Amino acid sequence: QVQLVESGGGLVQAGGSLRLSCAASIRTFSNSAMGWFRRAPGKEREFVAAISWSGGNTDFADSVKGRFTISRDNAKKTVYLQMTSLKPEDTAVYYCAATVAIADVTTRDYNYWGQGTQVTVSS
What is the pLDDT along the chain (123 residues), one digit of tens a residue? Predict the structure, then answer.
């Protein structure tokens, strides 16, 4: 059974930083593409960032490029989302996602989801 557990959310002032972590209990983590999504109040869930199984390929939404970075530690089965220069519009529940991949590429299509962690950015 796959379980994804996010942590690291919280309240931060605009311009601040947070690092989210996602601990994955998935046997095939080293062959899994990982991603982060978010859902702001009253809005649809949207893609934020993705990373391939080696970590060598990444993908970001235009709204976070240059401010967010994604990384992973396959030995720890953990993926991270480093968020800097946070804006009030980054306020959302952030979700970790995983899918077994057949190649070392990023994807925006996932099979497994975490429960989410709240990020609130005050102005």
Answer: 899 999 999 999 999 999 999 999 999 999 999 999 999 999 999 999 999 999 999 999 999 999 999 999 999 999 999 999 999 999 999 999 999 999 999 999 999 999 999 999 999
**Residue 103: exposure state from Cβ atoms within 10 A (0-12, 13-18, ≥19):** exposed
Cβ-based neighbours of 78, under 8 Å, separated by 6 or more:
21, 22, 23, 24, 72
Closest CA to 36 of 95, 93, 76: 95
51: three-class secondary structure by DSSP: strand
